[in-house]
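Recall from the previous chapter that SMILES is a line notation for molecules. Here it describes copper (II) ion.
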Amino acid sequence: MPRAAVLALLLASATACANDVPKPNWGSGLLPDHVTEQGDRIVNLWNGAWIAALAMGAVVIVLIIWAVIFHRKRRAKAELPPQVRYNLPIEIFYTVVPLVMVSVFFFFTARDGNYLQEISGKPDVKVKVEAFQWSWRFTSTVNGKTLPQVVGQPVSDYHFGPQLVLPVGKKVEFELESPDVIHSFWVPAFLFKRDVIPGLAPNNKGRFFEITTLNKPGVYAGRCAELCGVDHSRMLFSVKLVPQAEYDQYVASQSGSAQ
Ligand SMILES: [Cu+2]
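With both inputs in hand, we obtain:
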């Protein structure tokens, strides 16, 4: 009974803090639905890696089972089978095959890693993201106009955290900055996270990344993904994707309130 009670409590509290976890989707390898063009590439890399690893695992498991069954010690003949060593073809084989496998993984990982770090330099919206202990400050710049900052404070539900509003179908460049410790900017629906490292030079590539939003309006959870202190778990925010007309309205209302 006490164990069941503890389990029930754990279950209740574990699901309570997981209120922002998107529903898993088998079609995209259990990744959450994504809202960026870059997400397509990540889903493909993820699924490709899983399929390759599972296929390789299947070959290895079948070979192990085969070896166990056909080379088990039989009572009739107790002597050792012939001991083979320095078999050059086999040694070349088991050196080359893993090299090829690692090279294939490396190729796709490097190709997609480079793609994800590409920056066009011509974003429709620029967002400066400042991560601090323990919330976020977002400053958007659109058509040369800088909108008022959106500043948050620690919250236990992302709906109440700072909200970054972005238009759908547009290129958005992020610049990450931290005045204190390392944080990590993570919107699960972007299928992407990037550490926010204090003290990087202004032109350091590690500060920047770019996404192209898909036409999927909605409110998406975001959080800090790097343990950064006592209120790390409450460093929640949201990203709201809206159609262009609604975004223009938002920009207009913000420019008014700036004065
Ligand atoms: Cu943090």
